[in-house]
Each structure stands twice: as C-alpha cells, then as structure tokens.
C-alpha cells in the first residue's frame, strides 16, 4: 500500500507538471544546488564586525528574556556556576560531559551533587555548552551528542549555557556552515536553536514565561 | 473533526452575536497585526525576502518529486523511515501501526494542524491509544472537547474565565484567574505525561531534503519534550512542506515568526534527523515521518498550485476582517481565514465549502501580508467560478448575475444606467449623503447606512484622471 501511495503521489505531481521523471541532467543540477546550498539575502544587521555582533547578540538575547552573566575566561565558569547555585539555593546540578567542561576544576562546587546524565522530571538545573551564538536574533545553537543529552536543554527549570564570545556569528547561515564543517558525516540527531526561555500566550494572548521548557535561560558569556 | 462548513452562514450569524467570542477576537485584532508590523519595520530586507521565498517555493514545487525523493533518501540514511499516505485513512493507519508495534498506551502530541485534518485523536482513542495534547492551547481544547479556531493560536476564541472553569473542573483544583498560575498548573499536569508517554507525535514546519530533517517551531518547548522523551517519534506532515536545503529553510524561518506572532524568532527552532545515535544518552529509538498527500498533489499544475507555497504563518487570518468578525469555528473545519477559504474547498469539496470563497470582501489585505505572496483573492475567485460552473450557487444569485451580465455586455447601456443610478442615489440621500434603507439592500442597511455615490461614476472619474495625466505629460 505504502509503495503504491508513493508512486501515486509522485505520479500525480509529474502529471501536474506535465512531464515524467526529471532527466539525469536536471537531477544533477538540483543535486549540485543542494551541494552548494546557496544563501539568500542576509540581513544587514547580521553583518557587523566582531564587536558589533557581540553587542547585538547581547541585546537581542536580553530582549528575548535570556539572562546574561559575563565571565573573563572558561576557567572561571565553575565559580560563576557555584555563585549562581548559591544565590538560588540549589544543591544539585546536571552538566554536560564535553571535554572542555571535564577539564575544568570543579572544586568550587564542593557540597553540590553534580551529575552528567539525561534529565529526569524534577531535576531543577542543567549546564551545557553552546555550539554557536547567532547575533541577528540572540539565538543559541546547540546539538545533541554523546556528552550533551538533549533533555538538559528542555526538561529542567533553569538552563545554564556557556558561550564563548568567539563562538558568536552574525547570521544563521554561518552557524549552519560551521556545523557542517564540524560534524561532517556524523550529522547530529537534533539541532536546537534557542532564543530565550519558554513561554506561551495561549491564554487571551497574554504572554506568560515558563510554559513547558526552562523558565529561565542563563547565558554565561565568556570573554575570550 | 466534523465538517460544519456548509453551515457557515448560520454559524457566522451566531458568532457575531456571541459576546464572549467577540471579546476574545478583540485580543487577536489588537495583537498580531501590530506586532507583525513592528517586526517588519525592524527588518529592511523583509520585502526582498518575501520575493525570494515566493520564488524558492515555486522552484521547489516545480521539482517537488525530486525533492521528496531526496528527503526520503536522507531520512532513511539517518535511520528514519518515511511512510507515504495518499489520504487521511492511510496516514491514520500508518500511525496506529507504529503505536501498536511500540505497545503504546499513551502518546503525547505537539500542535499539528495536519493531525486535525486527519482527525487523528478520535481514531487513536477508538483504537485504545490515548492521545495527550501538550501545547497549552491544544491542551485546554482537549479538556473542553473543543477544536482549534486558529492555526497557531488554537484557543484564541476563549477567554481567561473559560480556562479557569475547565482547569478547576478537570484538575480538581481551586479556581484561579491568574494566567501564570493556570500555566503552571498545566505544566505540572503535563510533566507526568511527557515522561510516561510511549510515542511522541509532532508536526513539521519544514522538511529539509538536504539532510532528511524535519523542523518544528514552538515557543513553549512542549514539542521538544514530546519528541525527545518517548521511545518513538512520529512526524505527521504533508508533501508541500519540503524545502531543498538548510539555507532555504532559514529563508522561511526569517519570515515565519515575524509574519505569525511578530517575534524576531520563535523560542525553539528544533531540527530532528533520524533516531538517537548509538552513543547518545537520550532521544527516541525510532524516527518516522508520515508524509500525507490528501489531494495536494492534484493541485500541482492547476489554478491552485500557488496555495502549496503556504507556510501556515496565519498572517492572512490575523489581518482578515471576516475572520476577525466571525472567528475560526464559523469556517466549520480545520483551516479558517483566507488560506482556509482556498484550501478547504480542495480538501473537502467545493460543494461543501462553497460559502468560504464567497465570504470575502476582496480587500486584498491577506495577499498583502502573505510572506510567500499567495494571490489568495484571485484563487477565491477561481473557486467562485468553479462553484458557478457546477451550478452550486443559489438560484437568486445566478439570476441576478445573469441580469447583470446582460447589461455588462452592452457597455453604453451599462454606463448610462450606472450614471442614472448614481444620480438617483445621490438625490435620494439628500444633504446627508447616506441612505438609511434601500429595497433589496437590507443586508447592508440593517447594520449601517449606505454612503451614496458623490461625484460621477467610476468611468467619469477615470476619464477625467486620464485627461489630467495627459495634460500634465504634455507640459513636461
């Protein structure tokens, strides 16, 4: 039945277009277009200098209700996280197990229960790295992988994300290109573009923060 | 969802007198259009992007067979499976089969208009699988045994009171009229469902041929939990959602949120490509895409092909004076507003949906805000022609049109009569320039005065304009 449906659908489309299957030459052209994946118009706001991009990322992320905390270096991340946990009276943390995070001295989190595993309902807070920051809308790009369970991005109440300023690009297409170059053939199961914390306006069009995803999105911006 | 489209006229009359609905619709009219305008003003490239978006969709439709095959190849390459479905029945059966082989008792669902189109929830329930809607609006509707009245704001027809009532009744909690508290209540109730579900079903905003990915665009994060936590992720989508590359998808993402809610970008734009990899710690073990046709392939090469460009942003209905007056339920089926008035006759038949393309003032606002520039009024005219050809229009209407066409084919007589009626209306209206009542026109005058023509017929004014232009041109 399914194979039949496929043939019928494709047959209908071809009939509507007044042709049969595309010629080999036409198929090659389309394949090449996919391979080259040409860009469309890039908004001018995404094409600032590095400093301008960081400033734009900051203002757009804050406009989307993300919270930004500046730190001087990745090495300062554990102490900044420890401060945050203390201020919010939290005694546990789930964090990604990426090499860059593993290499840090987590001494400042003494007394905190730190684990690297998928999130379960009730876990309050998670910390992950970001793959890129996209200035044009203050968007983070994260992707799944062995060290970064996707539930860390969605199931906790508070999501902490570490982002180096050097990872900030102007526009989405640059992030897609970097992702292609980084993962090669090992395309990740999921890519998450995140712009601020979860929200809904389904009741009377009145915006409420914290629907089903994290109620707070906190970005540690590392000045490198 | 039961088709009530033939009752459009009666439903509209009821809607116009429904005080609570009119209050709720006020929230729409005062919200989305202004937010869209503000977002567009911040993006100087917006009009250029609209042109590119229109052209790219046209390119994609011209090669739809190729891109669908590429999409399937790449879904399979990443370990997923594509199920082609000619109609709703085939799609429902495919999804039930997946649920049964996963031994599913409950499935969580992200918001999907295609699942409404195929009435998936009823079918699953009849077959012993409990669907749980997780989008806040859809969740409210499921508790009320109600249906969406808008394609992105499903509960727009409800007020805070309605939500307070149903939550306290169904959750057994104390009644609150604090929207934040209501949302927290839904969050807690649904958390258990997210974790306990065996299958997660979402729609897709786009399908990317290049990578075999589907993408969902949500503000709540419910779609992400729906597709991350269960063992099986099923995407129900249609053949017109395919785009060639990630860059092409990005073009549409720049237009989608701005056209829809006026946001710069939706909170979560999530790409899914196949099931979890061997080394991943979470994510579904299975990834299925049910690719539904349901009459869309038959639109290719017809007067309605341009409708396949639609990205379901809802800008057309948000700006439509008819939708804004009667709301989505009056349209009687899944897709309301101008896009529904074009799509619904194709999906359920013009014999049932004939009222919809007629329920338009042809003000053209829908086309002017459509991010992919779909000529919606033109296509509604095509439907009116089909309806007329099939002798489906009412006798009185056909008679009137016949009389009019007799005059329209005699331009001199037509202009003379136009001049005469224009003058008579002006004289009848007196100093006020407005008429309180007029024979055969009480459909208009029952609600408002008819402004009488002032200063010549259209042809008179046109000739004068042309004369002025030529005169000016001669001076240069």
What does this structure look like?
The complex is a heterodimer of chains A (224) and B (476). Helix content of chain A is 33%, strand content 22%. Chain A has 224 residues and is an alpha/beta fold. Chain A has two domains: 1-38, no CATH class; 49-222, 3-Layer(aba) Sandwich (Rossmann fold), CATH 3.40.50. A six-stranded parallel beta sheet of chain A has the order 1-12-7-4-2-3, with helices on both faces. In chain A, strands 8-5-6-9 form a four-stranded mixed beta sheet. The longest helix of chain A has 16 residues, at 2-17. The mean pLDDT of chain A is 96. With 476 residues, chain B is α/β, with parallel strands linked by helices. Chain B folds into three domains: 31-294, Rossmann fold, CATH 3.40.50; 298-393, Orthogonal Bundle (Fumarate Reductase Iron-sulfur Protein, Chain B, domain 2), CATH 1.10.1060.10; 396-475, no CATH class. Chain B contains 24 helices and twelve strands. Chain B has helices at 8-16, 19-29, 32-41, 46-62, 64-77, 88-101, 113-117, 120-126, 136-144, 160-171, 179-196, 222-228, 246-260, 315-318, 321-326, 337-348, 350-353, 355-358, 365-369, 376-389, 395-408, 411-429, 442-445, 458-475; strands spanning 81-85, 106-109, 130-133, 199-202, 206-208, 213-218, 232-238, 242-243, 268-272, 286-292, 434-435, 450-451. In chain B, a hairpin with a 4-residue loop joins β5 and β6 (213-218). The termini of chain B are far apart. β9 of chain A pairs antiparallel with β9 (268-272) of chain B, so a sheet runs across the interface.
For the biggest β-sheet of chain A, the strand order reads 1-12-7-4-2-3
CATH superfamily of the largest domain in chain A: NagB/RpiA/CoA transferase-like
Per DSSP, the total helix count of chain B is 24
Quick one: overall form of chain B?
globular
What is the first-to-last residue Cα distance of chain B?
64 Å
- The spatial strand order of the largest sheet of chain B comes to 1-10-7-4-2-3
SSE-based structural type of chain B:
alpha/beta
Radius of gyration of chain A: 22 Å
Beta percentage of chain B is 5-15%
Q: What is the count of DSSP helices of chain A, taking H or I runs of 4+ residues?
A: 7
């Amino acid at each position: 039945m399914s194979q039949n449906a496929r043939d019928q659908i494709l047959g209908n489309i071809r009939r509507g277009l007044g042709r049969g299957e595309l010629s080999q030459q036409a198929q090659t052209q389309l394949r090449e277009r996919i391979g080259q994946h040409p860009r469309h118009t890039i908004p001018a706001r995404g094409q600032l200098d590095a400093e301008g991009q960081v400033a734009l990322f900051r203002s757009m992320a804050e406009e989307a209700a993300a919270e930004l905390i500046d730190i001087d270096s990745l090495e300062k991340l554990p102490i900044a996280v420890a401060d945050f946990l203390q201020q919010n009276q939290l005694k546990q943390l789930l964090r990604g197990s990426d090499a860059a995070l593993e290499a840090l001295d987590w001494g400042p989190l003494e007394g905190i229960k730190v684990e690297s595993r998928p999130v379960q309902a009730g876990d309050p807070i998670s910390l992950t790295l970001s793959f890129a920051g996209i200035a044009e809308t203050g968007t983070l790009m994260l992707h799944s992988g062995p060290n970064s369970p996707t539930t860390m991005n969605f199931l906790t109440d508070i999501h902490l994300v570490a982002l180096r300023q050097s990872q900030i690009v102007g526009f989405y297409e640059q992030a897609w290109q970097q992702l292609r170059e980084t993962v090669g053939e090992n395309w990740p199961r999921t890519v998450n573009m995140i712009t601020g914390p979860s929200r809904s306006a389904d009741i009377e069009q009145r915006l409420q923060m914290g629907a089903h995803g994290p109620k707070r999105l906190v970005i540690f911006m590392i000045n490198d | 969802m039961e088709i009530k489209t033939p009752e459009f006229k009666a439903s509209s009359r009821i809607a116009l007198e429904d005080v609570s609905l009119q209050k709720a619709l006020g929230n729409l009219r005062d919200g989305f259009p202004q937010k869209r305008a503000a977002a567009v003003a911040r993006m100087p490239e917006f009009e250029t992007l609209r042109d590119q978006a229109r052209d790219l969709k046209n390119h994609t439709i011209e090669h739809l067979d190729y891109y669908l095959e590429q999409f399937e190849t790449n879904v399979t390459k990443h370990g997923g499976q594509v199920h082609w479905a000619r109609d709703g029945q085939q799609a429902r059966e495919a999804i039930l089969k997946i649920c049964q082989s996963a031994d599913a008792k409950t499935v969580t669902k992200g918001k999907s208009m295609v699942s409404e189109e195929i009435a998936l929830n009823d079918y699953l329930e009849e077959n012993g699988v409990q669907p749980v809607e997780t989008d806040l609006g859809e969740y409210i509707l499921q508790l009320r045994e109600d249906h969406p009245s808008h394609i992105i704001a499903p509960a727009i027809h409800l007020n805070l009171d309605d939500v307070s009532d149903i939550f306290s009744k169904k959750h057994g909690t104390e009644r609150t009229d604090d929207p934040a508290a209501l949302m927290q209540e839904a969050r807690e109730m649904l958390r258990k469902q997210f974790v306990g579900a065996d299958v997660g079903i979402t729609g897709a905003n786009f399908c990317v041929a290049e990578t075999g990915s589907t993408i969902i665009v949500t503000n709540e994060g419910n779609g992400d939990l729906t597709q991350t936590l269960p063992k099986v992720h099923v995407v129900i989508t249609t053949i017109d959602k395919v785009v060639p590359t990630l860059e092409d998808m990005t073009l549409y993402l720049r237009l989608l949120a701005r056209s829809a809610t006026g946001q710069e970008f939706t909170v979560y734009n999530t790409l899914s490509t196949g099931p979890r990899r061997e080394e991943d710690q979470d994510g579904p073990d299975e990834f299925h895409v049910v690719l539904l046709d349901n009459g869309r392939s038959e639109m290719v090469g017809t007067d309605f092909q341009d409708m396949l460009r639609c990205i379901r942003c809802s800008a057309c209905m948000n700006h439509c004076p008819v939708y804004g007056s009667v709301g989505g339920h009056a349209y009687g089926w899944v897709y309301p507003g101008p896009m529904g008035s074009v799509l619904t006759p194709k999906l359920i038949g013009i014999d049932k949906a004939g009222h919809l393309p007629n329920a338009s003032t042809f003000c053209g606002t829908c086309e002017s805000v459509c991010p992919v520039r779909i000529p919606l009024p033109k296509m509604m005219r095509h439907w009116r022609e089909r309806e007329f050809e099939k002798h489906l229009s009412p006798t009185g209407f056909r008679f009137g049109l016949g009389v009019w066409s007799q005059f329209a084919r005699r331009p001199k007589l037509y202009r003379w009569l136009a001049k005469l009626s224009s003058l008579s209306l002006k004289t009848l209206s007196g100093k006020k320039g407005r008429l309180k009542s007029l024979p055969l026109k009480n459909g208009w005058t029952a609600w408002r005065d008819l402004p009488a023509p002032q200063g010549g017929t259209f042809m008179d004014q046109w000739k004068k304009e042309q004369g002025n232009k030529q005169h000016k041109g001669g001076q240069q």
